[in-house]
Amino acid sequence: MVRVNESNMPMTVEESDGGYGQLLAVLMRRRNWLLGVLGAVLTIAVVFTLVSRPTYQSEMQLLIEPNYQGKKDGSPPRQGEQYADSGVTIDDYATQINVMRSSLLIQRAVDILRSEYPDLTVKEVKKNLVLKQVVEEKANTKIVEATYTANDPIKAQKVLKAVHTVYQIYNREQQEQRLKKGLKFINEQIPAVTKTVDRAEDRLEEFRKNNNLIDPEQQAATVNASLNAIAQEREVIRAQYNDLQARYGQLQQQLARSPQQALVASRLSQSSRYQTLLNELQRTELALSQRRVVFTDEDPNVKKLLEQRQNLISMMQQEGGRVLGDGQAAQAASAGNGGDGVLQQGQLGALDLNLAGQLIEVQTNMNAMRARDNSLAQTQQKLRSELKRFPVLLAEYNRLVPFVQINRDKLQQLLRAQQELSLEIARGGFDWQALEEPRLGLKVGPNLKINLLLGLVAGLMLGSLAAFLRDAVDDSVHTSEDLERQFELPLLGMTPELPRGRVAPPEVSLPFGKPLNLSPWTVQVRNWPPSWESLDLIYRNLQLMNEVAAFKSLVVTSAVAGEGKSTLALGLALSAARLHQRVLLIDTDLRRPSLHEILNLPNDYGLSTLLSSDATLPVHNAIQSSGSYIDILTAGPQPEDPANLLSSQRMRELMAGFEQNYDLILLDAPPLLGMVDAMIAASCCTGVVLVSRVGMVRKTELAQANAMLRKLNVIGVVANGVSNVTYGYGAYAREQQGVELKKVWGS
Fold this sequence. Notes:
alpha/beta, 4 domains, five-stranded antiparallel sheet, Bacterial polysaccharide co-polymerase-like, eight-stranded mixed sheet
């Protein structure tokens, strides 16, 4: 969406705060829903507190210190534990708490209290009993805290005492029973496992003697591991060889020479005398080419340069033979064109010595990898032949050894468990001490403050939800952002929502001929600085738009009635007049005119009179002038067919004449929806300004208005009735307001 003069636009809470501001704006709009739900929830909380019976809570603390510990922190179980009765295994304190809350134990506690509290049930005890492990400094302790809540303080205390007694009896019984069952099972298993171990060891020893083997499994594993290592190494060598081969091809392509030629170039590049001669030859070649451009080969200087070039070549060949030796020098000469072979090789080495060295290195590595791969292949073949004799032996060996080891381990476990369980039986079971005996129950509820706090939180959440749901189903436009999203038009400005309360008296009377009392709403617009300043900003934005696309006549309209278009038209006229613009304000609402009522002007003659076919009244007689910058043309008597008058040629002639005599013509048009008058009036003007009151107009109505205005020159839209519009220098504006109004209307 395009914005007009954003630096001068007033900002609202919704615009400045983004998403959070929009949420706050929704809550402010729907505060009645929020406050209503909040009040209802708080009322329910108060009533609930008043009608609820008082509750009492008793507490106690138990120290749970077992002599026979279960597994902790993922550690393996002790030898004796796995043979004990698993039905009562206690692995951690969370499990212990679950055991305490079991229905079996709770029933025993209820049976103890049956004589005093015959109505007590297991369900009631489990509901009101809370068990938790005490945590200190983020570390779990061995202390379990038990609390019970009841309507009687004595009952709460007695229930905890009964629970404590039942816990102690149950755990002593279960621990002793558990350990004895485990020891009996172990004693029955040891003789049978011992016989099995002896038979398995005899069969394994006989197998080793018959096959003259120590550990065939280990031997086979070693051979197999060697084969796997060789296979992996060969795969790595092949991959590296392929990479080197690709690199070799790239280097050969870059050098366009074989490795032998690259070696020659490298050695020649390292000879300082050869490189000096090469540089001197290049300078001689350059001078010779420049000389031949002007002179022939018969020229003395040309001959001298040719002789010098030949001498340099001879010395370079000699130096090349010295550096390379006679054999390599001959090979270099044969690689070139006759005697220039060494020269060419030296030139190549001077260009790229690094590439030549890389090529030689790559070739050397490739030869080494081929040799290594051949050696590994031979070793691999030998190991495969050796491995073929192991499968039969390994099958029998792998059948005997695990059987022996399993039975040995089982026997050792049984013996250790036998010893441990015997010691545990001698030590005794759990020691569940009551660090803090159950005390008389203390009153804990109902708590009015807590219930009100909970009600406040719940009320705010539910109220906010209700407010958002109500706002979601609302089709009204509530913010300037909503208005911008509905129209692809510039936002010219925002006018604030007028404050409620007593209207201030007018400071200046409009000079239209007779004493008048302005309507209260109009006076409020004039005397409230935010409205005054917002209208000035809107008119300034219109001026900026006028610099781009010139217009002298504007239609001020709205989607529906009651959105403030007449007041905005009057305000824009005042703002323009303050800038010394001659303004003509025309009331084109011939069906329900209001401008003459706002300004307390006569309406005997007006626009309808001028447009009538039999009108003889001069134009200037129908216009009511203030004597300064603003003139008013009221609607006049209501005609039978307003649309016919507004669409007449007479209307276009009047507008053409007005545009010649005034700097700005403002047309207060009727609403768009439901009638065609506004569209007709807009066709006679060079621009249209749409007024939309937030919180009143609906999105569906705006969509219809937008569709009607698509073919017209709509300048922009004005958001009317925006809350929280902020301006600076408010006090200064109030002081200067009367002076400015006097300049506009005259004294």
